[in-house]
Amino acid sequence: MKKFLIVFVILFIGLSSQAEEVIISSVNLDNLWNKLGLMEEKAYIVGAKLLNANKIDKRVVFSVNNFNTVNAYAAYTNKTVTINKGTFKYVDNDDELAAILAHEIAHTVDYYGGFGKAVAMTFNSKSYEHKADLLAIDYMVNAGYNPVAMITVMNKIGGESVWDWGILWSHPKTSKRLMKDYEYIYRKYPKYLSSDMTKNLNYVNWTHTAQKDINKFQQKEKEKASKRGSL
User: Fold this and answer.
1) Exposed, middle or buried: residue 41 (CB in 10 Å: 0-12, 13-18, 19+)?
2) How far is C-alpha 102 from the geometric centre of its chain's CA atoms?
3) Total count of domains within the chain
């Protein structure tokens, strides 16, 4: 009986150690991201590409959390850009992810200005939201991403408040943001407005809602160009 128990224990230990080896060996550096999630990998790769291409000399850390709400934000305390997993449901390509991360990187760089700068950003937040959008467009282009993606992704995830005046509203209306983004791209990176991304359903949808503003802006730009030509 004792011999039987000894043999049983040896076999049990041997089988247990074999099973443990299989579990451990199933995760390695080649398939680690398949185990943890491709969203994290994408955020780190796209984020690092934006930082490197723009030679940003401030440390910015990227994080993905498990919240299913649509949000991304920059933290003053630890200079971390965090994107909620729920946001990825609305991100269709690397360009759109770059738009979200680049906007938050712009905020993080501003946070390096110190506590006083953070206070200014809080009480004049709408102005800094516009600034972050425009800086993000520059960051995107420098890193090889299409800036039109700023419009396509924000048209999907950006809410439209009833109004946006006063300190109670930290963000401007999305329609205002998108129009400013379009104007900036039109003036500085016009070639992208004839790229394939302008055929994106969400970009086309935005042009329908903003057509009057687009026409008005383009007319003013043409008049300015005409005056410059006559000098």
Assistant:
1) middle
2) 6
3) 1
